[in-house]
Amino acid sequence: MKLISLAIAALAAASAYAAGDSSAIMATADLKGTAGISAHFEFSETDAGVSVTVSAKGLAPRQQYPYHIHQKLVPANGDCTATGGHLDPDRINVSGKPYKCDPMSAAETCELGDLSGIHGNMTASNSGTFAAQYEDSLLAFSGTNTILGHSLVIHSASGVRLVCGNIVAD
Ligand SMILES: *[C@@H]1O[C@H](CO)[C@@H](O)[C@H](O)[C@H]1NC(C)=O
Ligand SMILES: *[C@@H]1O[C@H](CO)[C@@H](O)[C@H](O)[C@H]1NC(C)=O
Ligand SMILES: [Cu+2]
Q: This protein's superkingdom (predicted)?
């Protein structure tokens, strides 16, 4: 039994190494705030675009948390309200119409930075954690759609900005 679990651990370590090897981490973000929540994001380049790996803890069990890439950086005082609106280079939310992101049938209705609108909210486990990995075909590390020089914000269900952090090149 012990041998089997050792073998499984070795396999898991080997595949984690292989995954890390084929797509180097290009940027990270550490989100902190006063809410007792912390989150870590890793971004790497893949053939399909950008791979996003998220982990968070300190969330309220089973609660949903929207989160986005925001336009401006978090200032030294940590004020999440200073990060401005969502990253939106296509100016989707400046059309005068109420914003509604429909990722399934109309991806062009979603702001580039509306990660929870496109990929789903953070839904906390019974122990207040969340982990996810997904590919985003539009995010980039340079050009119009770059995520560098911007920040990440996690909101409460009612929209309050709970924690935030800057996306920094690795
Ligand atoms: C999107 O537009 C709405 C309505 O104009 C505005 O209230 C909201 O703050 C905008 N969102 C962002 C993140 O810019
Ligand atoms: C994400 O959470 C917000 C706030 O609770 C909610 O309005 C929205 O419907 C949720 N989205 C999904 C896809 O469940
Ligand atoms: Cu936001």
A: Eukaryota
Q: What are the residues whose beta carbon lies below 5 Å from ligand 3 (ion)?
A: 68, 153
- 80's CB contacts (< 8 A; 6+ apart) are 33, 74, 153, 161, 162, 163, 164
Contact by Cβ (8 Å): 51, 23 = yes
pLDDT > 90? residue 95 = no
How many CB atoms are closer than 10 A to CB 146? 16
What are the boundaries of each domain within the chain? 24-169
Tens of pLDDT, residues 3-16: 444 444 444 444 44
Q: Whose CA is nearest to atom 14 of ligand 1?
A: 85
Tell me which CATH code domain 24-169 carries: 2.60.40.200
CA angle, corner 96, sides to 120 and 90, nearest 5? 55
Q: Scanning the structure block, which residue is given the tokens 């059309």?
A: 95
- Dist. CA 12 → ligand 3 center (Å): 34
- In this prediction, residue 22 has a pLDDT band, given cuts at 50, 70 and 90, of low
